[in-house]
């Protein structure tokens, strides 16, 4: 198969690209490198540019016989989206609009979309099911939900097949240590704690310890980035064999508090890591835990690296050997 991966130089994108290459698939990457790293990719055809560049999209679709698209390219920071909602609508909704329009024009009928648990907002039930209400509490989740709906209506009108994958908290790195997570600025908990372990930060701020959870800190469902990569491949295969339009949660179904994550990082790194409680961060739900039963049953997805210690170990292997990231 030939698979076009938009945003393939980013964190989850690059791990998915590597996974697809390991399955001997042909991968083409389109990325504007605003957040991604060219150094995360090798041995593939690369187009640098934006999804709003329709001439570039024409070139990509004309030069390649594409069987499926995996669409990651997006802005993905909850806090930033609260300050710059229009940037999120432009980059996420408008960018996807152009990609989907070209996919329909060139008869590329299969698209796997990178969605998020942020589409649910503050959950009513734990674990969260795909059928639960979607009431996003920030523009980021709102733009991802708008795209899910764009894909649903495009399925009905044009026969465009799609699978939306709602990730919970992506973490970890390539188990073989070839690539990893490198964001600027970093806002995610695990890499921040590992940077503190490396002495690159003074310590870690715990955003609130007065949530209605056992230790008062927020609970998240951490999922290994390579398990996410596997799910994308299964989703492409499902679209090619059965078509359709569907949504799946991707998580481990297990929650860990911020304090538990910090303790696991201390254990893995064998470093003292200072942590202090600071005020809550706006827009953080107390608890997000997935039910991924549907992905297990319908995609045949089985996460391989489901222990938090393994996830942190793989992240640490990369961070401790790439202190400057891809620089
Ligand atoms: N946290 C801290 N200190 C930090 C950083 C984070 O206490 O320095 C806390 C956060 O408040 C939150 C938890 O650690 O309670 C996890 O925070 P992350 O920033 O790592 O992840 P989020 O849960 O905010 O968001 C991530 C993705 C989103 C996605 C969401 C879905 O970044 O894109 O998971 O669960 F929507």
TrEMBL record:
Q: Which family does it belong to?
A: Belongs to the NAD(P)-dependent epimerase/dehydratase family.
What keywords does the record list, in alphabetical order?
Answer: Carbohydrate metabolism, Galactose metabolism, Isomerase, NAD
Cofactor(s) this protein cannot do without: NAD(+)
Q: Which organism is it from?
A: Oceanobacillus neutriphilus
**InterPro entries tied to this protein:** Epimerase_deHydtase (IPR001509), NAD(P)-bd_dom_sf (IPR036291), UDP_G4E (IPR005886)
Which Pfam families is this protein grouped with?
Epimerase (PF01370)
Provide the catalytic activity annotation: UDP-alpha-D-glucose = UDP-alpha-D-galactose
Subunit annotation: Homodimer.
Q: Which residues are in the NAD-dependent epimerase/dehydratase domain? A: 3-251
Q: What is its EC number?
A: 5.1.3.2
Pathway the protein takes part in? Carbohydrate metabolism; galactose metabolism
Q: Does the keyword rRNA processing apply?
A: no
Taxonomic lineage from the root: Bacteria, Bacillati, Bacillota, Bacilli, Bacillales
Per its UniProt record, what CDD domains does this chain match?
A: UDP_G4E_1_SDR_e
Supply the name of the protein. UDP-glucose 4-epimerase
Gene of this entry = galE
Q: Enzyme class, one word?
A: isomerase
